[in-house]
């Protein structure tokens, strides 16, 4: 029973369970009446929300897409900020970050299926490596406007975060960059089909 009352364990469970909440799926079903798990790329992320909802309600699609990004990001940020306020150490904070991203990508509520982790990764990185994340977010925005390919823009933004944080040692105080790299690896891994399509020139643009 001591295990279940350990503050670290409670935060780890909260991070995974909250990270697992499929906000994109819930928003699309509630406000647009569509099931994004059976349409488009079948992902629960903002890009698929935008694509699927746009087919029936273009004016609502952008709003739901933005709401999905914000809520998916907050899944990671909120738990970390609460843990910070309670004086949890850096190692615990990074474990919370990893579990929040794992929850989004492998949701317990969706049979261990889920999204690709970009927004949730952004949410945990902004709390832990803020300067590098702002650089990554700017890279993401510029790439999205120029390339109009969501997955490629996201991966370029993620790469910018990792490179910037590594070079600046931004926010890292645990003697290892491994947790930051692990989060990036999870997100890259979930994007393998997109990467293959990008290489083949078959990845769809977001218009």
From TrEMBL:
Q: Which GO terms fall under molecular function for this chain's record?
A: glycerol-3-phosphate O-acyltransferase activity
List membrane-spanning regions. 12-32, 64-86, 92-112, 124-143, 149-168, 180-199
So what EC number does this one have? 2.3.1.275
Pfam entry (one): G3P_acyltransf
Report the enzyme's class at the first EC level.
transferase
Q: Which domain of life is it from?
A: Bacteria
Q: In which pathway does it act?
A: Lipid metabolism; phospholipid metabolism
Membrane topology according to the record: Multi-pass membrane protein
* Protein's cellular compartments: Cell membrane
Record's SMART domains? Answer: G3P_acyltransf
Q: What is its main location?
A: membrane
Keywords in alphabetical order = Acyltransferase, Cell membrane, Lipid biosynthesis, Lipid metabolism, Membrane, Phospholipid biosynthesis, Phospholipid metabolism, Transferase, Transmembrane, Transmembrane helix
Give me the reactions it catalyses.
Answer: an acyl phosphate + sn-glycerol 3-phosphate = a 1-acyl-sn-glycero-3-phosphate + phosphate
Q: Family assignment? A: Belongs to the PlsY family.
The record's subunit annotation is: Probably interacts with PlsX.
- Physiological role: Catalyzes the transfer of an acyl group from acyl-phosphate (acyl-PO(4)) to glycerol-3-phosphate (G3P) to form lysophosphatidic acid (LPA). This enzyme utilizes acyl-phosphate as fatty acyl donor, but not acyl-CoA or acyl-ACP.
**Name of the protein in question:** Glycerol-3-phosphate acyltransferase
Q: Which gene encodes it?
A: plsY
């Amino acid at each position: 029973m001591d295990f279940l009352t350990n503050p670290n364990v409670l935060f780890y469970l909260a991070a995974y369970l909250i990270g697992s909440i499929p906000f994109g799926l819930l928003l699309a079903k509630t406000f647009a009446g569509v099931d994004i798990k059976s349409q488009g790329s079948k992902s629960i992320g903002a890009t698929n929300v935008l694509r699927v909802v746009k087919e029936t309600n273009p004016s609502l699609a952008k709003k739901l897409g933005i709401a999905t990004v914000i809520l998916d990001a907050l899944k990671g940020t909120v738990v970390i900020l609460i843990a910070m306020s309670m004086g949890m150490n850096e190692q615990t904070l990074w474990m919370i970050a990893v579990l929040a991203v794992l929850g989004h990508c492998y949701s317990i509520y969706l049979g261990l299926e889920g999204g690709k982790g970009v927004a949730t990764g952004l949410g945990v990185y902004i709390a832990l490596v803020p300067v590098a994340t702002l650089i990554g977010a700017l890279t993401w925005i510029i790439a999205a406007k120029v390339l109009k390919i969501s997955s490629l823009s996201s991966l370029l933004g993620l790469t910018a975060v990792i490179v910037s944080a590594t070079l600046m040692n931004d926010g890292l105080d645990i003697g290892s960059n491994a947790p930051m790299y692990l989060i990036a690896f999870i997100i890259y891994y979930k994007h393998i089909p997109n990467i293959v399509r990008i290489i083949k020139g078959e990845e769809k643009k977001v218009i």
